[in-house]
Amino acid sequence: MISKDMAWKDISQKILNKVKIDSLPLRKAIVIAGGDTAVDGQNETHGFVSFHEMRALAQGVGAVSAVARKINAPIYLVDTGLEQDTSSLRGVLMKKMRNGTHLGTPAMSVEEAKYAVSLGMSVGKSLALQKVQAVALGNVGERCMLSALSVTTAVLKDDLQGSVFDKSLKIQFDKLENFKENPVSVLSKTGSTEIAMLFGLIVQSVREGIYVIFDNAVTGAAALAAVTVYPEIIDNIISFAEYDEPLYKIQAKKLNQRGILKYNFTKAQGLGSALGLELLESIISV
């Protein structure tokens, strides 16, 4: 629902001030990246939960699929690192770097992280060729909050050093390189394949003039990482989501986002981002 705590008029005006889209209807797309985290740690499901989530999306089942049909936005599903094999799922682009990332550091090799970022940039270029004006981001993956937490803490290590976030992880963040100077290396140590892929997607999409909408701590980690390396892209990053998840709230504050779409669930494969596309189009059309 739309949050009563936020001034709809103020948020709408903020969006209008920074979004420069003249033609309607808005040309939209949804990209959902799949990747499992810490598969060699405590792992009772072995990727079958995320596999079934991806299969449901491929079959057009679920809330985000319903929203996509309503707003006439195609959904692109990309398997960057799910533990299970998705080659049998029609409609899933299988670009698997590995079958899930490691627990701890490094999460993956530098080469795998580079490939993930490059894949994301290729997807961004493809969206531009299709004349997409705004893209919504989503994710599927088991234990994805671990990688979201690791990446966010690595990016904001000076701000979060000694915090509950820092203390909850077994990574020595003080020994990591500066994220802005060595993003791929740090992503390889702390990230996941889908966050690295979304990082590349965000950077390239904004370079192509596309607006990017995120909605949770995983897609938010990718957005925060992208803006940290390329601060000039921040005006093309949008989130309408508002919910009480501490990590997401830190990301949203750092990215100057004030949500108006309030809900109490955090894993919905990009539902909040997809609804954000509809809100964006509504604001522009008024």
From TrEMBL:
The answer to whether keyword Transferase applies is: yes
Q: What is the lineage of its organism?
A: Bacteria, Bacillati, Bacillota, Negativicutes, Veillonellales
Q: What top-level branch of life does the organism fall under?
A: Bacteria
- GO MF term list: nicotinate-nucleotide-dimethylbenzimidazole phosphoribosyltransferase activity
Q: State whether keyword Metal-binding applies.
A: no
Descriptive protein name = Phosphoribosyltransferase
Annotated SUPFAM superfamilies: Nicotinate mononucleotide:5,6-dimethylbenzimidazole phosphoribosyltransferase (CobT)
Keywords, ordered alphabetically: Glycosyltransferase, Transferase
Supply the InterPro entries for this chain.
Nict_dMeBzImd_PRibTrfase, Nict_dMeBzImd_PRibTrfase_sf
